[in-house]
Amino acid sequence: MLRFLTGVGHALAETRSQAQKPAQKDLKSKWPKTSHLGLRPLMLRFLPAPAHALTVAISSFTVIMVFTGIRPSNRISPESDEMMVIVLDNSNIRVVVGMSGGVDSSVTALLLKQQGYDVVGVFMKNWDDTDENGVCTATTDYEDVAKVASEIGIPYYSINFEKEYWDRVFQYFLDEYKAGRTPNPDVMCNKEIKFKAFLDYADQLNADYIAMGHYAQVKTDENGIVHMLRGADGNKDQTYFLSQLSQDQLKKSLFPIGHLQKPEVRKIAEAAGLATAKKKDSTGICFIGERNFKQFLSTYLPAQPGKMMTVDGVEMGTHDGLMYYTIGQRQGLGIGGNSDNSEPWFVVGKDLDKNILYVGQGFDNPALMATSLSASNLNWTTGQAPAEGTHMTAKFRYRQRDTGVTLHYHDDGTATVDFDVPVRAITPGQAVVFYDGDECLGGGTIDAAYAHTNELQYV
């Protein structure tokens, strides 16, 4: 199977698709003057035959060599094979790369630079993360961006999005916890900051595209619609967090490492001698970092301790504040099994009005098992909603396996999602993300969970 060396997405995928189709005699109608990325063929020799292509980066050009022939051959020779060469000039296409100081965004910039694009690196400062010792980790990350940018030879800048992040992401984060829900700030950050505020800033730099180090892929169909696909590395696929992106955002976005496995990304960085080649991946919520979650949240929201009870009304103790707990949580409850039942306890529900935390024993406690959910804030990445009653798969948490679901719409813009099999610990506030095979169709926000017709006491 052919693998393009850059994996930059739209244009090369289109070129490969063209190469694999039966050749046409009318070059002008078959090959547009510019591709989806604005790439201009500088040299083109047409040869009518089935083709296999190889892409090579030379300076600021992409060279696509398409080998054709009447009979199979292990080598290229004038007698048995013919060759079509397409040279694409990328030097006038500006791509602004969001660089975090990590290895993924570093390799993203490197691949685009090797492919000859006009690459600009930009570091986003979204949060004042100075710790109790006065050390700001963003400073270290920016220094790594500067090192990598210098190593690969691109200009780099820093932009401060602290206000935008506070208004569009962090305030949402606090509001959801106040409502007893469990938010997903990464989904909101991608929608509002990395692919909105950053895209607006990139436009000021005359960018044709932005690029991120996310593990996702995009392809453009014959109608010009961009489809988002899972990253090739199933362990790193990040389409769950990109499910709220619009068609306009995707049309301006590239994911150069989406076709790679994580170990391949590190090998590329090591081979190029990048300063971030062995840097540890960041984990967790960016504005919390290594800090204690409870302590962090209590800085912004006052804690309200209350009763901890079973769904049958048996009081089991007290909780520290509903905002500190999520559906399905086991750790931090402070209660254990008894002589009659040694199974561990889990959070199975919340009553915000009465400030009660409901708990139950057993991983598969019936109070945790849902057969459907309701969702709002629905977004479809192609701009086209699936038909009523469509069967697809969905994820309800990032690391969860896909579950078969059927979608039903309501007049108020919400939807009911029926599951093929019961699902554990559906959590209001989290994202439900829909897939058709490898394609991420979009997603929404979980509002409530149901066991058949009964709403579960989740909030």
From TrEMBL:
The keyword RNA-binding applies. One of its GO terms (biological process) is tRNA wobble position uridine thiolation. The active site is at C189 (nucleophile), C286 (cysteine persulfide intermediate). It catalyses: S-sulfanyl-L-cysteinyl-[protein] + uridine(34) in tRNA + AH2 + ATP = 2-thiouridine(34) in tRNA + L-cysteinyl-[protein] + A + AMP + diphosphate + H(+). Signal peptide: none annotated. GO terms for molecular function: ATP binding; tRNA binding; tRNA-uridine 2-sulfurtransferase activity. Residues 236-238, 397-398 are annotated as: Interaction with tRNA. ATP binds at G98, M99, S100, G101, G102, V103, D104, S105, M124, G213. Pfam families: tRNA_Me_trans (PF03054), tRNA_Me_trans_C (PF20258), tRNA_Me_trans_M (PF20259). Its EC number is 2.8.1.13. The record marks H214, Q430 as: Interaction with tRNA. Residues 184-186 are annotated as: Interaction with target base in tRNA. Residues 294-361 form the tRNA-specific 2-thiouridylase MnmA-like central domain. One of its GO terms (cellular component) is cytoplasm. InterPro entries: MnmA-like (IPR004506), MnmA-like_C (IPR046885), MnmA-like_central (IPR046884), MnmA-like_central_sf (IPR023382), Rossmann-like_a/b/a_fold (IPR014729). The keyword Nucleotide-binding applies. Disulfide bonds join C189-C286. Keywords: ATP-binding, Cytoplasm, Disulfide bond, Nucleotide-binding, RNA-binding, Transferase, tRNA processing, tRNA-binding. Residues 372-446 form the tRNA-specific 2-thiouridylase MnmA-like C-terminal domain. Gene3D superfamilies: Adenine nucleotide alpha hydrolases-like domains (2.30.30.280), HUPs (3.40.50.620), Translation factors (2.40.30.10). It is found in: Cytoplasm. Catalyzes the 2-thiolation of uridine at the wobble position (U34) of tRNA, leading to the formation of s(2)U34. HAMAP family: tRNA_thiouridyl_MnmA. Belongs to the MnmA/TRMU family. This is tRNA-specific 2-thiouridylase MnmA.
